[in-house]
């Protein structure tokens, strides 16, 4: 555990939480572990740390395989491992990018390979790496992988791994059925999904019209720039809602399965760093994503199933914090039996930006609702240097202060990727800043800088 304490300090963590401590002990000592814990409680770190103690750094082959239901979660796990700075080789593979890029990266075998089931199964068929060397298997959010249709690929992968010494399954759902193909016998169950008092408040927001867009706009103004997710059931609905919010000058990002990978990733980056205060998303964003604690989520569409309602709500009121789930309901719309509201809220009366501005301001003043457009005050810069150039967060801060003439408090969140970095900066004079730093030298390399 001494090594573990040294590693987590790199992440700015003083000690593991109770769930992570129990999971660490179980995975280190037991061949089969099922880890159940709500979204946002730190499951990634809970299974990554004991894996690092088990892996032999001298053996240059894939020893641990981690399967994740989405590209974003695979990349998140990879980032956590890289941030720990162990010296072990780590790679993530997933659909949506060229197979040749995967092959080039894993030609020199990683100790830990992370990927979506479809892409990992493809690599095994092509014999890009050997299944014989894999000793440790993690099925992260395994029930979500089954939900999105990866059962055949997962079964194929598990069946090909004949020398496993550890199997770890994780989920945010207490009663998720474990598939028989995993072959668990007597697993140790670490369960932190037990019913505990929650500070989540469920609020019903009535929409007198079948079209909920005006009610959504009024609600967002009522919430006054707090960060949150608006959940829709369909990606076509997201496009319609997004167009409406743009018309009414509400800055926001979008996130759903049909987007290009680079667009999905940048939406999450800008949401994490505060450039976007609102994210429009399908249930793809309900689980397994590295996004911060937020004060609210909004069910623009009523969820179709109870587990969708639970996982959406799990994005707020986490780790004993307060949070609210707003359910926008057309007055003639039946509410599923699993939705029980704690209170109701009336936000009708605030008119959209496209209508009379003076009337809007007057109504907003009476209601106590902000009528101003939702802007965060932050912008996101793309920098063309990353980890492969040995660029660190400290290097970027120094570059922006020295060359960009910024003060430290004008610089926000920084994310350093393999070949680039993203930085939040105060929006004031962004164009002037870009003129000063674009084509400047960062760590002796010339970098391009632009706003995304």
Helices, strands, pairings?
Layout (H helix, E strand, L loop, with lengths): L1 H8 L8 H12 L2 E5 L6 H12 L9 E4 L3 H14 L5 E4 L5 H8 L5 E4 L1 H10 L9 E4 L2 H6 L3 H10 L5 E6 L16 E4 L8 E8 L5 H11 L4 E4 L3 H13 L5 E3 L5 H12 L5 E4 L14 E4 L6 H8 L9 E8 L12 E3 L11 H11 L10 E6 L9 H10 L8 E6 L4 E6 L3 H8 L2 E3 L2 E3 L1 E3 L1
Parallel strand pairs: 1-6, 1-7, 2-4, 2-5, 3-4, 5-6, 8-13, 8-14, 9-11, 9-12, 10-11, 12-13
Antiparallel strand pairs: 15-17, 15-20, 16-17, 18-19
Short description:
The chain is an alpha/beta fold and 452 residues long. The protein has helices at 2-9, 18-29, 43-54, 71-84, 99-106, 117-126, 142-147, 151-160, 213-223, 235-247, 261-272, 306-313, 357-367, 393-402, 430-437, and strands spanning 32-36, 64-67, 90-93, 112-115, 136-139, 166-171, 188-191, 200-207, 228-231, 253-255, 278-281, 296-299, 323-330, 343-345, 378-383, 411-416, 421-426, 440-442, 445-447, 449-451.
Task: Give a description of the structure.
The chain has 3 domains: 2-191, Rossmann fold (3-Layer(aba) Sandwich); 200-367, 3-Layer(aba) Sandwich (Rossmann fold), CATH 3.40.50; 378-451, RRM (RNA recognition motif) domain (Alpha-Beta Plaits), CATH 3.30.70.330. Helix content is 34%, strand content 20%. The chain has 15 helices and 20 strands. It has helices spanning 2-9, 18-29, 43-54, 71-84, 99-106, 117-126, 142-147, 151-160, 213-223, 235-247, 261-272, 306-313, 357-367, 393-402, 430-437; strands at residues 32-36, 64-67, 90-93, 112-115, 136-139, 166-171, 188-191, 200-207, 228-231, 253-255, 278-281, 296-299, 323-330, 343-345, 378-383, 411-416, 421-426, 440-442, 445-447, 449-451. A 7-stranded parallel β-sheet has the order 3-4-2-5-6-1-7, sandwiched between helices. A 7-stranded parallel β-sheet has the order 10-11-9-12-13-8-14, with helices on both faces. Helix 2 (18-29) runs parallel beside helix 3 (43-54) and helix 6 (117-126) packs across helix 8. Residues 350-374 have low confidence and may be disordered.
């Amino acid at each position: 555990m001494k090594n573990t304490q040294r590693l987590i300090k790199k992440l700015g963590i003083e000690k593991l939480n109770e769930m992570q401590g129990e999971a660490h002990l179980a995975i280190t000592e037991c061949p089969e572990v099922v880890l159940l814990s709500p979204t946002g409680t730190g499951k990634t770190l809970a299974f990554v740390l004991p894996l690092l103690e088990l892996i032999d750094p001298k053996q240059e082959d894939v020893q641990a395989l981690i399967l994740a239901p989405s590209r974003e979660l695979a990349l998140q796990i990879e980032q956590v491992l890289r941030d720990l700075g162990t010296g072990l080789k780590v790679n993530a593979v997933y659909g949506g990018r060229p197979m040749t890029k995967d092959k080039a990266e894993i030609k020199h075998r990683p100790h830990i390979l992370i990927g979506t089931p479809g892409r990992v199964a493809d690599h095994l068929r092509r014999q890009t790496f050997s299944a014989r060397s894999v000793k440790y298997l993690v099925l992260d959010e395994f029930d979500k992988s089954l939900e999105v249709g990866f059962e055949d690929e997962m079964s194929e992968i598990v069946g090909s791994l004949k020398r496993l010494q550890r199997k770890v399954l994780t989920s945010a759902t207490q009663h998720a059925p474990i598939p028989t193909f995993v072959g668990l016998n007597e697993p140790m169950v670490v369960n932190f999904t037990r019913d505990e008092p929650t500070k989540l408040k469920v609020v019903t927001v009535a929409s007198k019209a079948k079209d909920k867009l005006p009610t959504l706009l009024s609600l967002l103004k009522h919430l006054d720039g707090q960060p949150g997710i608006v959940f829709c059931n369909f990606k076509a609905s997201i496009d319609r809602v997004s167009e409406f919010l743009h018309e009414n000058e509400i800055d926001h990002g979008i996130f759903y399965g049909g987007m290009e990978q680079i667009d999905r990733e940048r939406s999450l980056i800008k949401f994490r760093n505060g450039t976007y205060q609102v994210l429009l998303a399908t249930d793809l964003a309900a689980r397994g994503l590295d996004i911060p604690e937020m004060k609210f989520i909004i069910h623009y569409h009523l969820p179709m199933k109870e587990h969708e309602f639970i996982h959406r709500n799990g994005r707020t009121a986490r780790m004993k914090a307060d949070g609210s789930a707003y359910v926008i309901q057309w007055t003639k719309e039946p509410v599923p039996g699993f939705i029980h509201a704690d209170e109701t809220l009336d936000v009708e009366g605030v008119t959209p930006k496209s209508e009379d501005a003076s009337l809007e301001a007057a109504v907003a003043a009476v209601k106590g609702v902000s009528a101003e457009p939702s802007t965060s005050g932050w912008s996101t810069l793309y920098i063309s240097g990353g980890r492969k150039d040995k660029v660190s967060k400290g290097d970027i801060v120094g570059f922006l202060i020295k060359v960009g003439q910024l003060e430290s408090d004008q610089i926000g969140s920084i994310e350093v990727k393999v070949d680039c970095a993203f930085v939040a900066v105060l929006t004031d004079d962004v164009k002037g800043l870009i003129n000063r730093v674009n084509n400047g030298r960062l760590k002796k390399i010339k970098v391009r800088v632009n706003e995304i």
